[in-house]
Amino acid sequence: MKERSSKKAGILGLLAIIALLAGLGVWMFFSFQYEFGFRPQEIKRGLDLSGGVSITYEAADKANVTDQQMADALSKLQKRAEAFSTESNVYLEGSYRINVDIPGAKNAQEVLESLGSAGSIYFIYAVDANGTTNVTTDADGNYILARSLEDIIKDGDAPIDGSMIHRAEGVAIKEDTGAINNIVSLEFTSAGSGAFANATRWCSTQSGMANCLAIVYDNEVVSCPMVRSEITAGKAQVEGMDDLEEAQKLATFIRIGALPIEMMPIRSNIVGATLGSRALETSLIAGLIGFALVCLFMIIIYRLPGFAAALSLVFYMGIMVALLLLFEVTLTLPGIAGIILSVGMAVDANVIIFTRIREELATGKTVRSSIQIGFNKATSAIVDGNVTTLIAALVLYFLGSGVIKGFAITLGIGIVVSMFSGLVITRLIMKCFYDLGAKKPGLYGVAKKMHTLHVVENWVKYVVLSGAMIVVCIVMLFVNSSKIGNILNYGLDFVGGSSVQVTFEGSVPSRSEVEVLVQSAINETCSVSEVKGENAIIIKTKAFLEDEGKLNDLKQAFMDKYGVAEGSIETETISGSVSDEMKSDAVKAVIIATICMLIYIWIRFKNLAFASSAVIALVHDVLVVLGVYALFRITVDTSFIACMLTLVGYSINATIVIFDRIRENLATTSAKRDLKEVVNRSISETFTRSINTSVTTLLTVVVLIILGVESIRVFAIPLAIGLVCGTYSSICITGSLWYFFKTKVGNKKKA
């Protein structure tokens, strides 16, 4: 009776899981096909994968604008653009233009209206002390400017501007009458508080329109309230919003601050994917093949548990896609990197669990007990590894910008889902299999006799090998500096170059054809994107054509081959789209994330030696991969940032698993036991897990290298090398470092 009840529970459990997966699949199918109002819905893709809207702004007063003002305007437009997408690209084009790329957008005019032009906010006197009227009303009673904002500012009638605002928040306030008033609550800086107090003091003593202090945003009067008394608290409210969303949107723009100069839109168009139309298609195919290979590998190596892991991974992928749709996450190449890392961690969780189960079976325990103990023992390593990486993802999200934030979003979501799928879904599936009668140890595999690796004894060999790789890295940095002028082969994203727009009279040639033409004409690589709706393409290359005199050669090549008129070829010098602020944000975020991870490891393992060893291993991995970029002169662009962040997350997770086993073995051994033996034993016990996790993660990356387009390979090749390096450092470096700190540094402190 008990066995029949157990089988019934197993059948019901499996049916529930299958129904859940089927329901998830149906929901995703209809989500992709229909949204409310029967509109197609897709995962949002970045400019590199699907294109979007590109808008070019130009300074209205080019004669008087300074480089610092342009830099400030670029920085603030970057923040504003990120309100639409964290993957937005903003960079200088020429000396007086700023280009804004909004990924995933389809309507240039709609983005233009939402993004705003001048983006300035001012508090102005409705009527000034000289009796000059600045604000009046139209036929419908709406407040409008009576004269130009430029004249108002010139006459000193705008005492407060956006730079004086410290905080802005959109809120909904319920009035005594029950009505909802949507407002923007403002808090001024110290300078703004004083200016606002002076302005309200004067207005409160006046009558008529002179008693009003108008609020002007983007040359429109959004509010013109009367001032009853001097306001010294440094706070104000903007009223008249139609709904809370409008209030919050206005508050976002105000927080960004006013642009230091007036920028006018001069060009807007819809561009194609910068990675090429085949990039996403080949990446998806490679991802599916890699995923299938991972599932096949797990089933072959781990048998029945491997099949459970495959079902769990299907669930994981379904939930990931659902959350990407639900939260409208913009997916780009760095975002894909975050997903690859989280898939690796999802597989790793299952590998850790199954390795533990096999170890328990080898001691003679029953299958039921082995499953229970295996999950219990694996939980600490899985949680510590995932939480450590999640801390890094949170820091990168809050402190990073652009592609850094996009990477952090997909990684953070992936980590949470991977922990749930590994610790909950896999466990439920395993229980169902057991209840259905899968009780033979042979179905799970039994751990073979372990051969102890003598890692610590060979630390000198590893130091020499790692030292040699790091020396090569440093030497190549100097070599590159002398030969190409930079320590690394920086791409267009970092150093800028030229943007050339070519308009054709007939059909537009293919992307690959244009790339070959540019290469033969000026001996430069380039990226090509199509301007949708026009017979035009945009070519971006690192070469500064005006400086190097290559522009004429390029123009002649297009005129000779396609009959393009010389006037149909326009060129501009562009800055790196990875701005100085984004670079500093990235460096700051990575440093703080590393410190936070160090603190977490220190607290969890109650020993600074663990944290110090992990961080040194991270530095080692970063330097080695940096050497790969330097040695082969791989282009350093935004994918470089994604590669390095993926490496850091993978390496720390692999290290945590070994440290968790060292901690466990220390707790179950006598104090007199040699620490060297503990380290060697711990590395040996986790060796299979380390190799299997590396293989499963590399499967997807290697398929990307084989099937992906060139722009994808540039990212996948160093990532694959980084994954191998991370595995090597976890196995060969971290344990020996910990042993060194415990026996050398620790003993000296005691002495």
Task: Summarize the structure in words.
The chain is of the alpha+beta class and 751 residues long. It has 22 helices and 17 strands. The strands form four sheets. Strands 2-3-1-13-15-16-14-17 form an eight-stranded antiparallel beta sheet. Strands 7-4-10-11 form a four-stranded antiparallel beta sheet. A three-stranded antiparallel beta sheet has the order 8-9-12. Strand 8 (165-174) and strand 9 form a beta hairpin. Helix 10 packs antiparallel against helix 11 (367-399), helix 10 crosses helix 21 (675-707) and helix 15 packs across helix 17 (551-562).
SSE topology sketch:
Blueprint: H1 2-33, H2 47-50, E1 52-59, H3 67-81, E2 89-93, E3 97-103, H4 108-115, E4 121-125, E5 135-137, E6 143-145, H5 149-154, E7 160-161, E8 165-174, E9 180-188, H6 190-204, E10 213-217, E11 220-223, E12 235-241, H7 244-256, E13 263-271, H8 277-302, H9 304-326, H10 333-362, H11 367-399, H12 403-435, H13 459-483, H14 492-495, E14 497-503, H15 511-522, E15 526-532, E16 536-541, H16 545-548, H17 551-562, E17 569-574, H18 580-605, H19 608-632, H20 638-667, H21 675-707, H22 710-750
Antiparallel strand pairs: 1-3, 1-13, 2-3, 4-7, 4-10, 5-6, 8-9, 9-12, 10-11, 13-15, 14-16, 14-17, 15-16
